Amino acid sequence: MSDALECQAPAQPAALRIAAAEPRGLEPSGSQVLVQVDATSVNPIDVKRAAGYGRRLLALLGAARFPLVLGNDFAGVVRAVGPNAGPWQPGQQVYGLVPTGRQGAHRTDVLADTRWLRPAPDHCSSEQLAALPYCFTTMALAVRAVGLQPSTARGRRVLIAGASGALGRLAMQLLVPWGARVTAVCSTPDVQACADLGAEDVLDRRIRPLSSLPTQFDASLNFGSWSDDASMLAKLKPDALGHATAVHPLLENFDGLGWIGGLGATLRDLSRQRRLLKVHSPHARYRWVTFKPDRAALDTLQSMLIARAVELPIGLAVPLQQAAAAFAHVQERRPGRALLLPRTP
After folding, report:
1. Which of 30, 151, 263, 313 is 20 to 30 A distant from 331 in Cα terms?
2. Are the C-beta atoms of residues 32 and 339 closer than 8 Å to each other?
3. Burial (CB count <10 Å: 0-12, 13-18, 19+), residue 188
4. Residue 297 DSSP SS3
5. Does the CA dihedral 202-42-296-241 come out positive or negative?
6. Are 311 and 336 in contact (CB under 8 A)?
7. What confidence tens digit (pLDDT) does each residue in 61-111 have?
8. Would you say 250 and 273 are in contact if contact means Cβ atoms under 8 Å apart?
9. Is there a contact between 142 and 287 (Cβ–Cβ < 8 Å)?
10. CB 316 within 8 Å of CB 307
11. H/E element holding 110?
12. Are 331 and 18 in contact (CB under 8 A)?
């Protein structure tokens, strides 16, 4: 029997408890494998979901009924394999993702579909690996949404808001080697870190507003704040590729306004932003990005890991029993990723 970090009905602070997981359902079938989880990350969405965020739309995925187990990314060891799991073998070190649902990855053992699983490079620890898949996949979906890829990125000016966060750091580690010219938006303590990651220009938002930037960008990625979205659109060139944001109000709209009101608010928000974009860049794309497992993103991450070309700083790693500290670390926006170590006593 495995242990899981269950989130109880919404409360402030979130109610978390360690519970014994049901033994049934942990036998891999089809292309599944059972993974013993050595490390799993706490993402900002986990902290929000613990308080009920996204309950209406996520209910469609079976991911909103309490108690539930949060978490999407993990690293560990294969314990058992399903009959169609291909080359995967017990004892193999792996990392990967589980889709958003009730199962989650904050547990000692998790069932994973082999589509969302990759072999762990020998030089990477479980902690290093567990910090990456959710953030990297979300970032890669945003980069793809604006039309950036190795063949189109060279020489392109890319504006990244929230550049010092996990998504922003990963975007620079991907785009700078592709030849993109990145302008990073962050606050004073993170200016040097963004410069070290290859940003051509760093905007310290405590000193200079977004409005001070020239209208020169081919693409923009908002990983910071929804309130910055309109300002970023105004900085795109007439022939820009597009803009993507991972901090849109989709789930919040439905949570606060219900199904009909939430749909109306979402359509209005999208329509307004697209009209703003058309004024500056009539052919540019505009996308709201939400996480979902993606093979191409995981393949790119694997290649970068093998080349030792990607990493995120870890700020806290604690046993499952100290999960409240990890959730507080994320909620208070302390630096570095927060990890849970289910096998650590």
Report:
1. 263
2. no
3. exposed
4. helix
5. negative
6. no
7. 777 677 788 999 999 999 999 998 889 999 999 999 999 987 899 999 999
8. no
9. yes
10. no
11. strand 109-113
12. no
